[in-house]
Design brief:
- This protein is α+β, with helices and mostly antiparallel strands.
- 20% of the residues lie in helices and 34% in strands.
- A hairpin with a 2-residue loop joins strand 38 (706-714) and strand 39.
- Helix 5 (334-346) packs parallel to helix 6, helix 7 (392-409) runs parallel beside helix 9 and helix 14 runs parallel beside helix 15.
- The longest helix has 25 residues, at 566-590.
- It is globular and about 90 Å long.
- The structure holds beta-D-mannopyranose.
- The site of beta-D-mannopyranose has 9 residues, from loops.
């Protein structure tokens, strides 16, 4: 019998004697998911159910099932139990013998278990021990006090379990547990291919691959075969070798892999086959992209660059930070991740940062990024904490975790950075951590001694960066403007106005953000009528950042009038978030070259909550996400408006020159064009060009009803457009506009034409009872300029289903 896998997923029995639970459940899965499916716990996201549900994890749970083993199977040379993910502390028994205890949800185990199996019926039992009890005890008995994130259950630093499960400033405390990834038996004849390591050498017109299939130890004289298929499906290489030998493959005229907007996402398919004479024992296929990545840190007039270079192209990175997609991980899926990442791509992202307080994503996450051309900045799963690096088993556990996960991601062309942690170095510099000297010692051991050689050994082609943010010197100026990456939280956490974004010139802005509330449809999923006040107990339970509600009100008040009701408050909270982030992004994009990357905090949510996300838990796009599509547009026209001087800048991220035309107009709120100018323009590839410096000083009365409108066109198609106002929206003389519209349909594609007689800001288009994504939304409607938006709906939409509101309707 050749290599094969017997999946142990499917129906298992789950029990917890002390609380009288005994259920038939599905594996992979999780305790909460199983208890919810069996109506033992209520929906943990509804109202304040989180607090009740959390307590279910002070118990231990037993998963068990039986499975059959045949005589033939028992004759196989090796049988392994494969655990792709156990969350987290578990005792694993086979036929009543304890075969392993686990302590790290991020790890993968292959355990040789043949000696424990018998022909006929076998029994596997997995006891999941309470994470809450464990971390409590670990915290009490550990001799040192170490820094931990404020919003999490104390002691989580002692357990290698996703931190966000213990609560974060956007997440509930729901430390689920269980068999969260596949569990199987693997039957091996003679040997198996453990993994494939592939190195790429990029030559002038070819790429040389060095492929080393790691075969499990064996004395047999086995041989290997390599087959390579190019992106068009053509077999371009086949060769044979003995095991323990490297393959060397020269690809002439290579079709390389590029991030979105810089070229194609070409993928080659590489298959390794393991043979015993003419018998095929096993085969493994990996998709690879040909790409050379560099993190360019070169001295320049400001300090040192922080620029990703992919296949020789210096990429301006644009995107956001990704957190786990759910607190109940079994509810995540390839389809949902695809939907989320496609939405990121639609909003002109080319990079996603996987933040360090969550999980190492599924393999499909990286497959999707390879396919969509999204670069991945991968944090290792350490965040806002100092870890007990004097505990040897803990250190050994993280070493294995890093090897397991770096191996999973190393052949993915999208992964361009492995970063040691999130904010741990800045914590030591700024956050008054206890046990300072020891913390520094632990930090150095972890991110400078232990991790770099592992990354170098297992993923030598992927750059490593010790922490986000970090700078040139250790523990010094970690948020420097001139070196490394920056997290800038003066706006938001320190209540600074978002205009302060213009005071900073980061080399790479990897985090900054503003909160907002999700849409009313999302709030309806967890709150009742009586809860619909942001200071109600239920709404506050879905706001995990203490003092954030008053911050939102403060930011809203800086720009908008006091909202007339709850729904209007939700809407203006999203508008202020979008405006603030736009303001920052446009400034950094005007400083192209000095700044080479922007990732706002945060892309998504793990439950329905007030947060910094641009897409909420139910995949509803907030205003920010629509605006991201515009402010991240590869060619952007933006305005740096000041009381006496306005600069108009065109930023071109692309690797080709931009040739087109820009138009500049001064318009009043009734649509009267006070002045107009049209100019043909060329903007060099990968640069920003100031095309106008306007001496514009509007008296207050004029500023109340006048604005600047700019657009840039290529062959008469608008590529980017923008506006500048010279007073906060609350002080503008907005009047109620008549917005006329007409809906047209071709199959399932709808086109909506809109025109208004007076300026309308943040115009929202909704379709009654439907969750749809539009090509544009929350735009400023300029009087007498035709606006065209499109959307897809498989259900019939009538003109009367369209609901339109704008800023003027909120007060
Ligand atoms: C950042 C992140 C998270 C946090 C966010 C908002 O620094 O790294 O820790 O959720 O701020 O406070």
């Amino acid at each position: 019998m050749n290599y094969y896998i017997k999946n142990l997923g499917g129906e298992w029995n789950l029990s917890a004697k002390d609380i009288n639970i005994n259920l038939k459940v599905q594996v992979p899965g999780s305790v909460y998911n199983d208890l919810l499916a069996n109506k033992i716990i209520p929906d943990p996201f509804y109202k304040d159910n989180e607090y009740l549900v959390r307590e279910y994890m002070v118990h231990d749970y037993v998963y068990e099932r039986e499975f059959e083993i045949t005589e033939d199977e028992l004759k196989t040379d090796y049988v392994n139990l494969v655990l792709n993910g156990i969350d987290t502390l578990a005792e694993i028994y086979l036929n009543d013998s304890l075969i392993i205890t686990t302590d790290n949800m991020h790890r993968i185990w292959h355990i040789f278990i043949k000696d424990y199996l018998k022909q006929g019926t076998n029994q596997i039992k997995i006891v999941i021990l309470s994470p809450l009890k464990y971390i409590k005890k670990a915290e009490e008995t550990y001799p040192h006090k170490l820094y931990q994130a404020h919003d999490s259950v104390k002691g989580y630093i002692h357990l290698r379990k996703a931190h966000y499960m213990f609560g974060w400033d956007w997440g509930p405390q729901l430390p689920d547990g269980g068999i969260w990834r596949d569990i199987s038996l693997e039957f091996i004849t003679k040997a198996k291919i453990e993994d494939v390591s592939i190195k790429q050498k990029h030559l002038e017109k070819s790429v040389e691959l060095t492929v080393f299939p790691e075969v499990s130890k064996t004395k047999e004289n086995l041989h290997l075969r390599l087959e390579l298929i190019d992106p068009s499906g053509k077999l371009i290489h086949e060769s044979n070798k003995l095991i323990n030998q490297e393959f060397s493959v020269l690809i002439e005229n290579p079709l390389k892999w590029y991030p979105v907007n810089y070229g194609e996402q070409n993928l080659y398919q590489l298959t390794i086959k393991l043979f015993d004479e003419a018998i095929l024992l096993e085969e493994k296929t990996v998709k690879i992209g040909l790409r050379e990545i560099k993190l360019i840190q070169e001295e320049d007039q400001y300090g040192e660059s922080f620029t990703f270079e992919v296949n020789g192209i210096k990429v301006f990175a644009k995107g956001s930070n990704y957190i786990p997609e759910d607190n109940l991980l079994p509810r995540t899926s390839r389809e949902l991740t695809y939907k989320l990442l496609s939405a990121a791509k639609l909003a002109n992202h080319n990079m996603i940062r996987v933040w360090g307080g969550g999980i190492y994503p599924e393999d499909y996450f990286y497959d999707i990024c390879d396919e969509l051309g999204l670069l991945v900045w991968q944090d290792l799963m350490f965040a806002c904490s100092i870890y007990p690096m004097d505990k040897e088993p803990f250190v050994e556990s993280i070493k294995s975790e890093i090897i397991d996960n770096v191996k999973r991601m190393r052949n993915h062309p999208s992964v361009v950075l492995i970063c040691g942690n999130n904010e741990n170095e800045t914590a030591i510099e700024h956050w008054h951590v206890p046990s300072l000297d020891l913390s520094k010692e632990f930090y150095l051991k972890q991110y400078l001694e232990i991790i770099p050689p592992l990354v170098q050994e297992y993923a030598p082609e992927i750059p490593y960066w010790r922490s986000s943010p970090a700078s040139k010197e250790l523990f010094h100026n970690t948020n420097s403007d001139n070196y490394g990456d920056m997290h800038y939280w003066g706006v938001w956490h320190n209540n600074e106005p978002f205009t302060n974004y213009r005071l900073y010139f980061p080399r790479f802005m990897s985090e900054f953000g503003l909160q907002s509330f999700p849409a009313i449809e999302t709030i309806n999923m967890f709150a009742e009528e009586e809860d619909k006040n942001i200071f109600s107990y239920v709404m506050e339970s879905h706001q995990k950042n203490r003092t954030a509600n008053s911050k939102i009100l403060d930011y809203v008040g800086k720009l908008f009038k006091y909202p007339k009701d709850f729904e209007s408050l939700l809407y203006v909270s999203q508008a202020i978030q979008a405006e603030g982030i736009r303001y920052g992004v446009e400034h950094w994009r005007r400083n192209y070259g000095r700044c080479m990357g922007i990732l706002y905090w945060q892309l998504n949510d793990c439950w329905p909550v007030a947060s910094w996300s641009s897409i909420d838990y139910y995949h509803r796009w907030k205003i920010l996400h629509y605006h991201a599509k515009k402010f991240y547009s590869p060619v952007l026209i933006s305005l740096e408006e000041n009381p006496t001087l306005t600069k108009v800048v065109i930023t071109n991220d692309l690797s080709v020159d931009f040739k087109g035309k820009y138009t500049l107009e001064l318009i009043d709120f009734n649509g009267k064009v006070l002045s107009k100018k049209e100019v043909d323009i060329t903007v060099k590839a990968q640069s920003a060009k100031t095309v106008e410096t306007l001496k514009l000083e509007l008296p207050r009365k004029e500023a109340q009803k006048t604005f600047v409108y700019v657009k840039v066109e290529e062959n008469d198609e608008i590529i980017s457009e923008n506006t500048a106002f010279y007073l906060p929206d609350k002080h503008l003389k907005l009047e109620k506009a008549t917005i006329k519209h007409d809906l047209n349909r071709f199959k399932n594609i709808y086109t909506l034409y809109l025109m208004c007689d007076k300026l309308a800001k943040f115009v929202e288009v909704k379709i009654k009872g439907k969750d749809l994504v539009f090509t544009d939304n929350y735009f400023h409607l300029i009087p007498y300029k035709l606006k065209v938006i499109k959307f897809i709906s498989n259900e019939l939409i009538e003109e009367s289903d369209i609901i339109i509101r704008s800023l003027i309707d909120t007060f």
